[in-house]
Design a protein that fits this description.
The protein is mainly alpha-helical. The chain is built from nine helices and two strands. The model has no long low-confidence stretch (mean pLDDT 82). Strands 1-2 form a two-stranded antiparallel ribbon. The protein has helices at 3-27, 38-59, 70-106, 124-140, 142-156, 166-177, 179-186, 188-207, 213-257; strands at residues 112-115, 120-123. The protein is 78% helix and 3% strand. Strand 1 (112-115) and strand 2 form a beta hairpin. The radius of gyration is 23 Å and the shape is elongated.
């Protein structure tokens, strides 16, 4: 192999490794945060690709490819990183949805904040749950799990060896469909307490019509919701840990479907 062919093969290999890592940085929790500059994401992907190149070359030696096929290969490699980051980001989508539902039942529907993780409006309770989930994600080592899955993907799926079968689409549908049950599970005690409060309000309004239930109901729901949220915080860590372990298994299952 002459110098030009060797250099071309290694430049192409580095580009494909870089775009697989960049796909993760675009959607994964923490890395994809809007507060992180795009240059920092690209720089992080560049240095991670430099560190991984010796390991990738040792496992799968560089091969010269046609430049016409490189754009398609870039899309394929980016999809691997995007898939890993997407599964991890669903955990935060569940916490955000949980806080949104809980906040609306508490009467915080008009209180909206900007969520930098998803660049969208979210409720006050949803933002609080997202911050708690972010701290737990870092404390449990969720970022290490994501990076480990990314490194393992180079062994499971060689560069240029991405394949997609029909079962992958069903797996994506299954994983995304679990967001709503997870959202309910995170703050289930608070939901139950609010539902019971609503039932009590209805009974009071029925049997004591002279009482202004609208004036009493709003602060009562806020108080009950905050108490329920305080009750859920101690169990939030165990629930989130189980969710992260399940998400880790889902990541490796999807990687198997890309082989």
């Amino acid at each position: 192999m002459d110098l030009e062919t060797w250099l071309t093969a290694h430049v192409q290999l580095f580009a494909l490794v870089f775009f697989r890592i960049l796909g993760l940085c675009l959607v994964a929790p923490i890395f994809a945060n809007r507060a992180v500059p795009a240059r920092l994401k690209a720089g992080l992907g560049f240095f991670m690709a430099l560190m991984l190149m010796p390991l990738v070359i040792q496992a799968h030696p560089a091969q010269g490819r046609s430049w016409a096929a490189v754009p398609v290969l870039i899309l394929e490699e980016s999809s691997v990183g995007l898939l890993i980051g997407m599964v991890a980001s669903l955990l935060f989508a569940a916490t955000n949805l949980s806080g949104e539902i809980l906040g609306r039942h508490m009467g915080f529907g008009m209180v909206q904040l900007i969520d930098p993780e998803f660049d969208d409006e979210t409720s006050l309770v949803g933002q609080f749950e997202n911050l708690v989930a972010l701290m737990l994600f870092l404390a449990i080592g969720g970022h290490h799990i994501m990076l480990t899955a990314l490194f393992d993907s180079f062994e499971l799926i060689p560069i240029g060896g991405v394949r997609c079968d029909s079962s992958l689409a069903m797996e994506v549908v299954r994983v995304t469909g679990e967001v709503f049950p997870l959202a309910i599970r995170i703050t289930a005690p608070a939901f139950v307490m609010l539902i019971m409060t609503t039932v009590v309000e209805g009974l009071v309004a029925r049997f004591v019509p002279q009482m202004n239930i609208l004036v009493i109901g709003l602060p009562l729901k806020i108080a009950v919701g905050l108490i329920g949220l305080a009750v859920c915080i101690p169990m939030f860590s165990s629930v989130f840990d189980k969710m992260l372990r399940t998400a880790t298994g889902d990541i490796y299952t999807m990687l198997e479907h890309l082989r």
